[in-house]
Specification:
Strand content: 5-15%
Oligomer: single chain
Order of helices and strands: EEEHEHHHHH
Length: 122
């Protein structure tokens, strides 16, 4: 399988696997189970910027699609619902690519827009 291309300089595909530790311990075997394939799950060709922008736009415009996606993301969490504040916050994380530092997404939408405008002026 081709999952990386030099000219793209990034991954072309991503798969998420689950590992059942209790099962592994009880049966003394390691079994990895495919949870989902990002390209297949979201009907993408590759994980390239243009396709990822299209995915973001779909998440931002189709709340039912977002909720289905969020449930996959939060599958093993006790909190798998997302109200309007959560929705705005999660879209911000996706758009900014700063999931490691969500501080900008904790700002109000108005504050984020002011910062974006200020950055464009510089």
């Amino acid at each position: 399988k081709q999952w990386y291309q030099r000219r793209v300089r990034g991954p072309l595909k991503h798969e998420t696997y689950l590992f059942d530790l209790e099962r592994a311990n009880s049966k003394n075997e390691t079994v990895w189970e495919l949870e989902y394939d990002t390209v297949g799950a979201y009907n993408l060709t590759w994980l390239v910027p243009k396709e990822m922008q299209g995915l973001y736009e779909r998440l931002a415009s189709d709340r039912a699609f977002f909720n289905k996606t969020y449930f996959k993301y939060m599958y093993h969490s006790n909190n798998n619902t997302c109200d309007d504040d959560c929705y705005e916050f999660e879209l911000c994380l996706i758009q900014t690519g700063r999931s490691h530092d969500p501080s900008i997404c904790n700002l109000s939408l108005e504050e984020r827009r002011k910062r974006e405008l200020k950055n464009k002026m510089c």
